[in-house]
Amino acid sequence: MIHVAKNIYRFGNGVADGNGKMTELLGGKGAGLAEMTRLSFPVPPGFTIATDACRFYLSQGIFPSDLSGELRESLAWLEDVAGKRLGDPKDPLLVSVRSGAAVSMPGMMDTILNVGLNDECVQGLAEKSGSERFAFDSYRRLLQMFGSVVMKVPKEVFDSAFKQISQSEGASRESEFSAEALRRVVAVFKDLILEFGGRPFPQNPQEQLSMAIETVFESWRSERAVFYRKLNGISENMGTAVTVQTMVFGNRGVDSGTGVGFSRNPSNGERHIFGEYLCDAQGEDIVAGTRTPTSIGQLEDTSPKLYAELRDLVAQLERHYRDVQDFEFTVESGRLFLLQTRSAKRAALAAVQTAVDMVEEGLITKREGISRVQPASIAEILSPQLDLHAGSPGPLAHGLPASPGAAVGKIALSTSEAVCMAGRGESVILVTEETTADDIEGMAVAVGFLTARGGATSHAAVVARGMGKCCITGARAIRMCDGDAVWIGEKLLHAGDWLSLEGSTGRIFEGQLPTRAASSDLPALNKFLSWAAEVSTSVVRANADTPADAKAALAAGAQGIGLCRTEHMFFAPDRLIAMRAMILATDVKDRIKALEQLLPMQQTDFEKLFRTMPGLPVTIRLLDPPLHEFLPSPEEIDVQIAAARKDENWEQGIALEIERRHIESLTEVNPMMGHRGCRLSLTYPEILQMQVKAILQAALAVAGDEKAGFEPLPEIMVPLVSSEEEMSVLARMIRETADEVFARQGKSIRYTIGTMIELPRAAICAAAIARHVSFISFGTNDLTQMTYGFSRDDARTYLDYYLENGIFKVDPFITIDKEGVGYLIDLAMKQVRMVNPKIKIGVCGEHGGDPESIHFFHSLGVDYVSCSVARLPIAQVAMAQASQKADAQYQAKTEAASGQLAAQDELLSQLSRA
Amino acid sequence: MIHVAKNIYRFGNGVADGNGKMTELLGGKGAGLAEMTRLSFPVPPGFTIATDACRFYLSQGIFPSDLSGELRESLAWLEDVAGKRLGDPKDPLLVSVRSGAAVSMPGMMDTILNVGLNDECVQGLAEKSGSERFAFDSYRRLLQMFGSVVMKVPKEVFDSAFKQISQSEGASRESEFSAEALRRVVAVFKDLILEFGGRPFPQNPQEQLSMAIETVFESWRSERAVFYRKLNGISENMGTAVTVQTMVFGNRGVDSGTGVGFSRNPSNGERHIFGEYLCDAQGEDIVAGTRTPTSIGQLEDTSPKLYAELRDLVAQLERHYRDVQDFEFTVESGRLFLLQTRSAKRAALAAVQTAVDMVEEGLITKREGISRVQPASIAEILSPQLDLHAGSPGPLAHGLPASPGAAVGKIALSTSEAVCMAGRGESVILVTEETTADDIEGMAVAVGFLTARGGATSHAAVVARGMGKCCITGARAIRMCDGDAVWIGEKLLHAGDWLSLEGSTGRIFEGQLPTRAASSDLPALNKFLSWAAEVSTSVVRANADTPADAKAALAAGAQGIGLCRTEHMFFAPDRLIAMRAMILATDVKDRIKALEQLLPMQQTDFEKLFRTMPGLPVTIRLLDPPLHEFLPSPEEIDVQIAAARKDENWEQGIALEIERRHIESLTEVNPMMGHRGCRLSLTYPEILQMQVKAILQAALAVAGDEKAGFEPLPEIMVPLVSSEEEMSVLARMIRETADEVFARQGKSIRYTIGTMIELPRAAICAAAIARHVSFISFGTNDLTQMTYGFSRDDARTYLDYYLENGIFKVDPFITIDKEGVGYLIDLAMKQVRMVNPKIKIGVCGEHGGDPESIHFFHSLGVDYVSCSVARLPIAQVAMAQASQKADAQYQAKTEAASGQLAAQDELLSQLSRA
Q1: Any long-range contacts for B189-195 (C-beta under 8 Å, 24+ apart)?
Q2: Considering only CB atoms, which chain A residues are within 8 Å of B759?
Q3: In this predicted model, what pLDDT tens digit does every residue of A325-339 receive, in sequence order?
Q4: Could you give the ipTM of this predicted complex?
Q5: Looking at the partner chain, which of B672, B791, B801 has a beta carbon nearest the beta carbon of A682?
């Protein structure tokens, strides 16, 4: 069969003009039918009008001039293949007219079945099929669909008439209708079309076909289709293809029927056909839900031959498409036809299970298997979920889904309450206005957090994701009451009341709901993750502040620590006292004394950290947050002052007054842009010196320990650098301190100095800064804040508005902003690589755990990303996929290049022959 | 005279090897002497050893091999010209050996006079001159200078010996010394040199000369010279020239003497010679201050002929050098010699006066006149100054010089106190921890502000410069006490006590010090500023928020308003009530009602603004600050709540509680990066609509007013845009509101829409943003904050440290950071011009009033800068100078190009002849 038409592609009898790759021209459905036909699957013959024609029609308002000729020819061909003719009063050809765009838009566009019937033909069909019921049922279906879809008669008009007749017939459902009743329905429907459609139902089958095609074209720009495309970012310019296909009839009696199914279980990936079947029905009946279908599995008992045939066909489909298939079929008088097949959407668990199974079955390669799973699916599998069902209560309120999973526990309204309740062995949910660094202890013991303020990257959210705990933030329906109560929506709850959180949706439920455990021990998942690590070309490290974090990170396959926030080591009560003494010291001597107390504690922390990361790099960031974060609030001091006064302890009162004033003087208007990061190291060099000492003394201790058997790889990272001058001074200070340590101990160890690039100016001046460091790590949280001028802590009010109103497509704190922030990262990397091609480049912001961002970072060529332990698997999968994509692009380029070479060779050899 | 030597350049008898342009090679002094010689000024002959030789000496430790030969030849030449020979026992040639670098380093390097005398020659000199006193005075001067400078004998050794002899002589000063006494001094000095210098004074005049030259070379790297160069950013590699010049003797009796002077008064520019003269003395006597010189003017009476000669010579010097001259001269036995001349340093007033005078005298062009005045001088002239003198008290404390001028007033410790005191007609200085928007009223009535916190760009500083008032910020020695007292340094002062501030130095004085008024009515200044406006190629506009500001701006020559901050219109008490009602409205209806109250007020403001700027553009920025700036603080509400409870007014108490909660919910962690700018316009579109209505209705009203006779040019500016999406939505909202206004009124007016580029992302994405606007204006304050991650309100603690420790050379909030922030500005401008070559580009941050920054902006090609009214003259002068510099560079390029062309032509014609 050689294709000559411009607009129409035929398929039937095992041959087709089109093929499976031509989705842009033929739509998903048309291309699929062509492909299945070529593969000799039992597909009713037909032809597809290409999207070109639709685009022409939509822009010009008429069919392309050559379309009607092609239609005539194609129809004639179809009549030959089918052995029937459209409008033949004896044995009429009936066709379906279906929409089908390149991108699936389920239910958004129109389809008309049974086209070709009229008052005359219906008699022929009745005689030929031997079933008047079947013929008139088909005719009334045509009238109903054509009437509502093509002639715009309101659907309800048909529905109410149908209901009336069924009542007068005493039939509860259509299969109980007699042929006579159906004749009556047909007559009534024709009257309704004339009345509401403004003209009689067209008896000419050619006219029916032409009108149906035009209607399908038009449906491309129906309101709901436009809305759907807008919602899903689908181009307006594609247009739809129209497939005209010989009807097969599932409504031809008890040995007929229609079904939809999946080649494997789409929920858990189990290897058996899964789906529904409806006897004596056409496809739209399953969708309409008027009758309850049976499970496909039951066919094995009722029609074993049919089931076996279906199973074999589906297995062939999977083999050909190399993926789980979602298919539609019809059985006409015991004969099986496939009407559609496509790759199946599947749940997280199924995605991983089927990917691993299909790799092991040899159906797909490991690399393909990896690309088949959304990284987000991994997060879903790894967190417990609320076990909700039809009878579950509705949520009290909604917040932002800040960290996935489920949490069920008793309400604690403060950190101290949480610690106290957890001490009694209770499961606790911490409910607060918002959390601060002071709440770390409470957060450590709680199973989940719920805050009234803050966004997806607020303190609570970041800590939750870091801890892998469920968290809902920015729940505006929460109002804290004085004392021990909180309004959640319309309900007043008290400390100790049960609450259930659904982190993946942000829903808040009253009471103790049941949960489903996380599936982290799934063998398929472990296998999948190990494959991901195998194919990755960049490394995934973890953000880990404690030895416990580090241990979990190593277990989850982290290839080092990309960010250890040393300040998190200072919040333990005994350390906090020394830390506060250090901050409130009024001279350098006192400050150094307090630091000397902290030194051994830090050193022990670092020793443990190094031991848990044998031979892997550990990046330690010097003190970053503003010092007032470690101090009590002035309000807390006020309480103490009042107590001292009450006890007539005047001396302490005065000391506290002085402390309060000191604390107030450290308060800042915009702490994010205040006295923090390397600015602390410059103004209080003794803090930097203590930390560098602790790091290197720890490294020396571990290296000297024969049992350890490896040398630690400390990387000292300076935060918040804005200029070369800062970096050069600090690098010198670090080296001098290191030299002192080495001289005192008489031995040395390898260490590197690096910096975070987290201010726009650092990115712009990266080349100069890079001259003083061995590695840089992009702190994308702060870089995003500064580039946009968005404070993470405050942005929720307007950022939510932006997202809800489509001003922003994505939250730049979740997915990296390629245009703005990405520009700076790219600019910095290009400069830095030019100055120092060997420099190590990483990312340690929140974006290091976001798949889309990881793809971007990989495309720029970072050496590693670092993310919270809980997001490691997601990041590992994303990194594996990014690596493969890059690899595929490289291969494609290579192939294209070699193709070109071959073409040139060919040309040359032709020339030489000439 | 044809120069053949490599290292030495001779001058004398009206001819010279060098000339005035050869400062790099001959130093300022050598080049000046060569030039003066060529012009036949009476200059003692001599020769200059070029800086090349010094550099060679400094790097190799020896004289260049050919130097001694050249020295011999040059000396022989000099002896011929002078008619005397070095070391001639009968009539010895004496010379001075002087340092002189290309850049003036006054007093930093060495000079030795009277070289050539020894025990024998001194007798000859005595006989030849007929004065033993003169000869031995000269010899003891040589011994003293050579001994201390060349032979490193401590100066004090000579001084104490000299004192002893003068006591024994009963002479109070050296002119009273007898020849015998001077002989004794010579003998003692020689002994001292042997004792402290370790060897006898060299009797060989050749050796004296050689040692003196070497010492001058060495003095290039003396500690004080190195320090001075570091301080002034002078290159270490230049080296000094050495000038060897025939001595002329001011110490030859009463018809001899020495003097220094200015061709015009360096304090006020008056056109007469100004300076000092010392009879019977050598140059160093004036510097030493042992004798009190007389005014040069007195010569007119005492030596009218000499004075006339000097006056004519100085007039010639001015004509030749086309600038005010600072000259040194010596009179030897009634004969006048010039020893040095250079352009004179002058005070601000003199700079302007002499520039204008010299232009009007036809001595220099207008363009030259403009380049002669530092923009900072204008600020100095325009502010009153404390009239400090020797008896004035010392300052109590220091702060940062945030806004220049002087302020003398009584201390007010709060805005309400300031308003109250000012109401009683008192002059008030507002002294606070720091100021906020709430203090505007107090700032409006105060004559100056003093704050304990904040930096050069804090709220107080910015407002002060805007108001042209004196301000000192960040005075850490200030501690506010509870009640009505404040510690300033060691002194406890109370409200109502007198205080005096010196804004240009940051000094704080107790009491009511006298002031000198500003010289703003100076005719020369007005003329100067009008010339500046004439030559500027970019425009200077003013930041003006009120009609009064606008009026002052117009008077000061502003060419439009570049920034009107509409929020400043909301702080008046009657408006603040409506503003608060608007903010605290819980639904859109109430908000619109409150806005409707504000609309007529804003409209009236804008009408006045337009009327004061006839036909000039007025850029109005939509509401920018976070809303909580307009609300009372929670603490204020607490006071009201307590009062309500005391009165048992429970209902009001509850209402206040609710208000307090609302206010708290608007509080932000980092307000600078919070819910402000265009984010307000997007989330509260009704605010934008009100403002746009007010602007356009005002413009229509003024345009319709026949008396006005012009059409206003409103430019609506959207602040804090970070993305194209925001700008496109807002531009549409503005246009829609405008269309409504025009439709309702049945008439329209021209207006433009623009945006501020003040976030790094806006600069990066400027091309996309620019598609929606007609102008952009760089908000360099916020852009600097975000690019560095420095909060202006908090940065002082570390920024001061950076500046003090040389980590930063300049404060990026005062002078634009070209490398980082400047990169973003440049990037944005290039993109924007590419997309829209006609777009108007301005700068409206603080940097718009900083000369160095203005040069940078001009070099990038901005259309205008906008600055506070007080800084307008400075900006105008800086802009004029930048324009000329650009023009000069263009001319230089053109000349170079035409020179190249001529050379090519020449080459071609040579070739054609060949």
Answers
A1: B189/B140, B189/B143, B189/B144, B189/B147, B189/B158, B189/B161, B190/B143, B192/B147, B192/B153, B192/B157, B192/B158, B192/B161, B193/B143, B193/B147, B193/B151, B193/B153
A2: 787-789
A3: 989 999 999 999 999
A4: 0.78
A5: B801
